[in-house]
TrEMBL record:
This is dTDP-4-dehydrorhamnose 3,5-epimerase. GO terms for molecular function: dTDP-4-dehydrorhamnose 3,5-epimerase activity. It comes from Tunturiibacter lichenicola. Its EC number is 5.1.3.13. Belongs to the dTDP-4-dehydrorhamnose 3,5-epimerase family. It is an enzyme of class 5 (isomerase).
Length: 151
């Protein structure tokens, strides 16, 4: 439905983003560089609700196979740039919906995501002012429970 392309410098941390009302599944690919990509399960009916998974993603090269990460609807998404620069391309299953845009703090203590901050040579991650205003997980407005999953 929509293609997104971002360019970031080392240490930039984006996320954790999700949308209400018009959720997006995302197919993520790194075009250049190296990121650590994170998905957090926000589906209240899921046995993995509140759990996160992190993956190193690199651009394809002669030494590396193509790496893609599928993040289904109902997950928050974020990434940390570990190389000097990174270009990230992702296909989304729905259009960007500003009214539904939400963010959870990247360093929320309940989620306790183990970001590879040590790769930043002692520097803190660079977080946008918008992402710095993200909510704590326990205070975040999360997607509603899908009734079809409960039947």
């Amino acid at each position: 439905m929509q293609d997104n392309h971002s360019f970031s410098l080392k240490g930039v941390l984006r996320g954790l983003h999700y949308q209400l009302g018009r959720p997006q599944g995302k197919l993520v690919r790194v075009l250049s560089g190296h990121i650590w990509d994170v998905a957090v399960d926000l589906r209240r009916e899921s046995p993995d609700f509140g759990r996160w998974a992190g993956f190193h993603l690199k651009a394809q090269s002669s030494a590396d196979q193509l790496q893609l990460l599928w993040i289904p609807e109902g997950f928050a998404h974020g990434f940390l740039v570990l190389s000097e620069t990174a270009e990230v391309f992702y296909k989304a299953t729905n259009l960007y919906y500003p009214a539904g845009e939400r963010s959870i703090l990247w360093n929320d203590p309940v989620l306790a995501i183990d970001w590879p901050i040590e790769a930043l040579d002692g520097n803190p991650p660079l977080v946008s002012s918008k992402d710095a205003l993200g909510k704590h997980f326990l205070e975040a407005e999360l997607p509603p429970v899908e009734v079809s999953h409960l039947v």
